[in-house]
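Aggregate trends can hide what the representation actually does to any particular protein. This step matters because it turns folding into a mapping between discrete strings. For completeness, the protein is quoted in full, as a sequence line and a line of structure tokens:
=====
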Amino acid sequence: MHTELLAPAALGLLPVIVFLLMLLALDSYKLVRLRLVVAVLAAGAATAFIGMLLNGLVADLLDLSFSQLTRYVAPVVEESLKAAVIVVLLRTNRVGFLIDAAICGFAVGTGFAAVENLWYLQLLPAANAGVWLLRGFGTAIMHGGASALFAIVTLALLERHGRMRAPTVLPGLLSAIALHSVYNHFFLSPFLSTVGILLVLPPLLYYAFQRSERAVGDWVGRGFDSDTDMLELIDSDRFDDSPVGRYLGSLKGKLDGPVVADVFCYLRLHTELALRAKGQLMLRESGFVAPPDPDTRAKLDELGYLRKSIGRTMLLAVHQHLRMSHKELWQITMAR
């Protein structure tokens, strides 16, 4: 990159990167690890390349003007691509609370905005500083905020519905598309649109953080006690008479003995790892990071084996009966 392009590049990239770093700093529980942030940034950058290709194909196919493309097509294409990254994270239980949903969503948008702004920098090398200020504080923040909005809304609906379905995804996606499209219309002016983004999105994300911080604390406290009670119950003579014990007993007439044994082992391992995950969160909230535990790695490998042995259908039934929500499944990734 030529030295004369460094200043425009900084104006176009630094605001959204600094905002992402601020979100990471606000996360007192350190729910999102750096390697995941880097992976999500890369995924967001990849969606930008795919989005530019698809936008170009649609514009040529439908003979659209630049304004038609940016107002009505690009928001749908680009937000759908960014949303796909978030859906993968949710389905693989990489996101558990609004905090990490906001961070991962904003990271997707940051990766997208970085590629898009660098592309525009090559197209418009002579653009003045005002253009890059608007792209850095407006367009880039909009991309990050729209993806964060999708992630927050979708996670909230996933916790309510319990499964990733169309009604879980569509409200957040439509909200992100609407935000993107309204911004690109510049109903008042590019400057006022940028000011609007800065007035709306940071307070929204801050509210999500504040609410999620309280939720994490409450969940860790209650969950630690319930997991401890569950382990004690498993090791006691009262287990067979408990609701969980009766449920496992009911499986003996329907499944082979080894599968029932695997379900019991899965329950115990899951509870042990859940306790470790909550203990890690407590340490992180106090400013400490637990060192890697080789024994935990072995337990995670065993848990993966048990999942395959039990089978997807039976595993879903176990999760539903034992009321293992998205958070209960997400926490296992914290033990890694």
Observations:
- Residues 162 and 320 are 9 Å apart (CA to CA).
